[in-house]
Write a structure and sequence with these properties.
11 helices; 3 domains; DNA polymerase, domain 1
Amino acid sequence: MGGYDDSMRIIAHIDMDAFFASVEEHANPHLRGTPLVIGADPENGRGRGVVSTASYAARAYGIHSAQPISQAWHLSEEAARRGKPCVVFLPVDMELYADVSRRIMNVLRESVGCVEEASIDEAYLDMSSLKDFGDTEACITGIKRSITKEHGITASVGIGPNKLIAKIASGRNKPDGFTVISREDVATFLEALSVREIPGVGPKTENVLNHKMIFTVRELKKIECEVLVQWFGKWGSALYAKARGIDDDPVATVRELSSIG
């Protein structure tokens, strides 16, 4: 597909852990370790916005990104009644987060050169010039250490033969994770995953597949491409490829940012 040979590619995906909250903790050391929610004003449970980011301490209360801020406030109150620390709610400071993001991306470019900013808190790095997964691990370890030292932020990294595998791998061991999937291990790695873990598979696609008794990538791989196209149109063809770890999308050094993590 597209002339790209995965046998020659090494791609890393680096994802900053709880980015907005981590930036706030670094800027305000007294908040470190505090259950922290960045987002809309909860207005004592009457707020209408959503959670942008929750620190890992806040996630332990069941709070997560995109959750209604009113629900996050009630979960905080429930935790407080159990004797847990109260959540600190902060507004989004996009100017601060964008500045830290720019400096981190500069670190990546200085270290690698071929970097694609996927969002304010994540990037793909083409490490193919190193030609060896071991050398790539060493390089990325140094990058992770630099980001933590300079910005007080941990990052989770996935390394694989293409962007798809690297992206999935980076989310496997958060926070501060490091997951390497060699070319030989791609099939085994993917087959054990739930279908929801495939990038692009949302609740609707998951529900359709689940109703057809397809829950894992291993089960999804048993479905012919033509059948998936009948079910999902063009997305079915992409889903067929993703289930097999096929992705020839290059690391694009210039692109318009499409999302904020």
